[in-house]
Design brief:
Distance between the termini: 23 Å
Structural class: mainly beta
Order of helices and strands: EEEEEEEEEEEEEE
Shape: elongated
Largest sheet: 12 strands, antiparallel
Number of helices: 0
Low-confidence stretches: none
Length: 185
């Protein structure tokens, strides 16, 4: 169980998110597990529309500020063992439309439903070295599919490094150090 509290102050539209998270794991084999996760909460949006510069200075759609509370729910399932994992998540099950103007021009700010699919495998190499390839696919209506590929090398279960590539977008360097059995930096 957990609680997520996010206060986003980047840009002109402040946003707060409050969510409660719950997960439950079922042991389905000697070395395999199936986990389920649920989340519920709300987003508090405060958009100061009156301060925006618009093409038509008298546009009534932008004369009042937008203050809205929108509930949402999420679901995920995660199948895993010591050597592999597969996961599927819908972090926001509801499509949220923040504002829309129907007379004349239609304007929308929409939070579409996002779908996430992930997987990975751990190959035991020699001399306490492990090779860990993984992927993450993100899909949202109206947006291009995003695919991340990662490959890491883990030495003696302590030091890990690798690369992550987001197809047609970016490359990241990964480094990790196990400080204790339950703390990794």
């Amino acid at each position: 169980m957990g609680i997520s509290v996010i206060a986003d102050r980047v840009g002109p539209v402040p946003e707060e998110n409050f969510y409660a998270d719950f997960s439950y794991t079922i042991k389905i084999g000697d070395q395999t597990n199936l986990a389920f996760g649920l989340k519920a909460g709300a987003t508090f949006l405060s958009a100061p529309l009156a301060f925006l510069n618009t093409v038509n200075s008298g546009d009534i759609a932008f004369q009042n500020n937008l203050n809205r509370v929108t509930p949402n729910f999420g679901f995920e399932t995660y199948y895993y063992s010591d050597n592999y994992y597969l996961g599927f998540a819908l972090p926001n099950l509801l499509k949220i439309v923040h504002f829309e103007r129907k007379s004349g021009v239609i304007s929308k700010a929409v939070e579409e439903i996002h779908y996430f699919f992930t997987g990975g495998y751990v190959f035991d190499m020699k001399n306490e070295i492990k090779f860990k390839p993984s992927f993450l696919v993100k899909v949202a209506v109206g947006a291009p599919i995003s695919i991340d590929y990662s490959a890491n090398i883990l030495f003696q279960d302590n030091i890990e490094f690798g690369l992550s590539v987001r197809y047609d977008d970016s490359v990241s360097v990964i480094f990790s150090l196990n400080i204790t059995e339950k703390l990794r930096m």
